[in-house]
Description:
This protein is of the alpha+beta class. The protein is built from 8 helices and 8 strands. It folds into 3 domains: 2-56, no CATH class; 60-160, 2-Layer Sandwich (Tetrahydropterin Synthase, Chain A); 205-253, no CATH class. It has helices at 2-16, 90-95, 100-117, 121-126, 128-143, 162-204, 208-221, 234-253, and strands at 17-20, 24-30, 33-38, 41-44, 50-56, 60-70, 76-87, 148-159. A 3-stranded antiparallel beta sheet has the order 3-2-5. Strands 6-7-8 form a 3-stranded antiparallel beta sheet.
Amino acid sequence: MLIVVIIVVIFLLSITIVQVNEYERGVKFHRGKFHKIMNPGWNFVIPIFQSYKKVDIRTKAVDVPSQDAITKDNVSVKINAVLYYKIFDASKAILAVENYSYAIEQLSQTTMRNAVGAVTLDELLGEREKISEKICKIIDELTDPWGIKVENVELKDISLPEEMQRVIARIAEAEREKQAVITKAQGEVEASRNLAEAASNMSKVPGAIHLRTLSTINDISGDASNTIVFTLPIEVLRAVDGFSDNVQKENKKK
């Protein structure tokens, strides 16, 4: 008889004592009504009259599936994201929404599509962090009545159609060519200013042009090529021209 009593007691304890782990909270109901939150440890639950549901309060990651969206400038894109959230009120997560994990996944998809539709493609590609913060703020405000805190939203991948990828590649190439032309033009302007300044300085110093000519000839002579270019000042050519004219005049007089 004692053994039977012991077995009955052990059985009753096994069905009345509920263990709640540290990372969980228990939502306890008494005759179908919310009674209290069960903290970590052993808790008593009277069968038939009472029931409970455990809620995991650890941070969870939701992989939002790839969504087709259209940006503000009518560009079709595919975008997916990952969302991190945790439950701060277990009773609201059970009482306020039927299936909080499914509800937050659906809410994330619609919010992400709406956020993408409110920005242009350039803003979507260049301000990803700002858009992620905006999505996170919207979802957090909507899930607050469910006892859920959205900690972060990260846009993982943005896929563009192949035609748009080629257009963006051409735009980037044209932009690089434009920058190269501008840089080259700026270099030529700076070089022309330096040459003008050098020419002005040389014109003020007698013999500077001849010294520069001799320096150029010296540089050319150091080359192993067979062609040597010899330059003469324009004054020498004028003197030779004037001398030839005088010779012709003297010959005519004779």
